[in-house]
Please model this.
Amino acid sequence: MKLTQAFKNKEFVITSEVGPVKGCARNGHNAAFIAEAATIKSYVHAINVTDNQSAVMRLGSLAASVLLKHAGLEPIYQLTCRDRNRIALQSDLLSACTLGIDNVLCLTGDHLKLGDHPTGKGVFDIDSVQLLDIARGLNQGHDMMGNDLTAASDLALGAVVNPNFQPLDLQLLKMEKKIAAGAEFFQTQAVYDPKLFEAFVRKVEGFGVPIQFGLVLLKSPKMGKFMNEHVSGIKVPQALIDEMASVPEAGYKDKSLAIATRLLKEISPMVQGIHFMPLGWSDLVPQLAATAQDASR
Amino acid sequence: MIGTAKKPFDEILAALQGFQKIGMVGCDGCAKVCLTGGSDEVAALAQELKAQGKEIVFEASPERTCNMAKAKPILDPLKDQIQASDALLVLGCGGAVQITRYVTETLGLTLPVKTGLNSVGHMDTTVPGTVAVEQCQECGDCILNDTGGICPVTKCAKGLLNGPCGGSEDGKCEVDPARDCAWVLIYNRMVALGEVDTLKKFVGAKDYSKAAKPRTLYIKEGRVA
Ligand code: SF4
Ligand code: SF4
Model:
């Protein structure tokens, strides 16, 4: 099912995320990420499948998306511009539609230097705005050069936006270009500061696209520190890191749940859905999804 | 300018293995600015090679070794010395090395032409003698008119054309926090110039056929093919 349909139905749209394994998952074997996703099947509308996230080489997001589909879950196929030129991107979009994928999230992709193949050549032939425009063209029955397709694709087009970005107006300038290029829904980068998120929402209210708040579960004080130091574009307030550190390690999960619950209560009323990035703690998603649903009403 | 950096001495020695008599060609253009291949650096490397038992047949540094008009008048008169060399070692950019090779061919000589430098980009010196920064990828379709005179093709690590990725933080690039995010620079400059609306326009996929290598420039006609 297309996510856009759920938004149209005024549903509060919950998605989560899995990262494909670093290895072969033939016949669904060694596919722990499928099992993880399956446990939250009835609590989410769809599951994002990351595309060689952080530029770490893994099982492809298309194959993993198809496995999810076979397991009865709705995948959101993430497609980055880092590793494919314009021919490969268009071909992969047609492949995705052919294999039953309904949703695609169009991204630039993390730079190779951040991953496990830093000596590779980044492609970046196309940027995320152009990719959306191209994907819309395929949906309309033509490739980016204007050549007719035998059959058009039919994919709901998602995009990302980072509310932490400074200057925010520059990030919003790009967001508006994405909308004009065909983006039908947005998932945000992880934000831990409700005030900052509110300022963002105020500015995009008139854009007319559904937005899902991105929530990365904070799993430990160390992870918060790591994200601040090494993950560009995410800021974890020191107060949250201290709050995590105020409990013994055995209490991290409960604390994580408490922090996420608080954030969701404040932010859910401002958005049209939540995108969870649980990093292995998918077991917290059902309860959090319920909290978000309640808070959104 | 073409930026160059010295290859490790061991790598140069390995490239010259089996060659005793070495002719040395530097470049008093870009490589001189980079302190990698001007006459001084040629002389210094000649001393090091001698200390390793090599014979240096000649040292020459044309004003711009990449330019036939400058290289040939210096190298042609050295034909005998070139012929007496087992190999040439060029301290210049990749262009200088290949033009030197070409000159030897026009002289009817066949001998190995080796390089002692790595070419590292179309750069410009921002702090003389200290820092040169990559400025241009010679994309064949310059968009500086629309980006406040700052090149995103080169200065954005991903070459993005429609604005920044989400990875920029505090104005720095996700790839290297020591480096400014090109798109924040472009945006700030366009704000200062009162031209932000230009950035709101959709920029279509770049025509990379204009950068398809190897390109030839027909100078008189201004034609690229
Ligand atoms: S837009 Fe192209 S030609 Fe202009 S500076 Fe950048 S790379 Fe060079
Ligand atoms: S942080 Fe800025 S310069 Fe670096 S890749 Fe992203 S947009 Fe380009």
Summary: Residues B 136-139, 142-144, 151, 153-154 surround iron/sulfur cluster (ligand 1) (CB under 6 Å). The beta strands of chain A are 13-18, 46-49, 75-80, 103-107, 156-161, 185-190, 211-216, 273-277.
